[in-house]
Design brief:
alpha/beta; 5-stranded mixed sheet; 5 strands; about 50% helix
Amino acid sequence: MFVLGIDPGLSRCGYGCVAQEGGRERAVAAGVVTTDRELSLPERLATLRHDLRELVRELSPDVVVVERVFFQTNVRTAMSVGQASGVALLTASEAGCAIAEYSSNEVKLAVAGYGSATKEQVQRMVATLLLLERPPRPPDAADALALALCHIASSRSARLRVAGGTR
């Protein structure tokens, strides 16, 4: 399984690609797509779409996982994250990728074992699970890798439930 996690954001959109091979997960790519704050909103969204398209084309993931945004206290930030999320979902759909969404709490639970884990705890667990020398930076890239790991864990659990006869 080859999974691309996307931590949506208009200024900084994290991405992290994880391959599952032989029961082991391996980081393939991670980083951040940025947009110029001097550009208009439509131009920034177009830039994000272009960069995500290129990323999906280059990596050819089986699944694209996008963080589901539930609530943020800053309305302006929530709007831009929601717009970036929509661009990511559209880009994955147009590329024909399977799509999954998980909330921040679901990701933290899957990766760190605790739904209220701190960013630092998630970063350390991502490094541990992917056998990295140090936690991935910036945090947006670590969050995207955590999204990919969450989906792999969720898929593994679903396969075990089906194989065990429980649904």
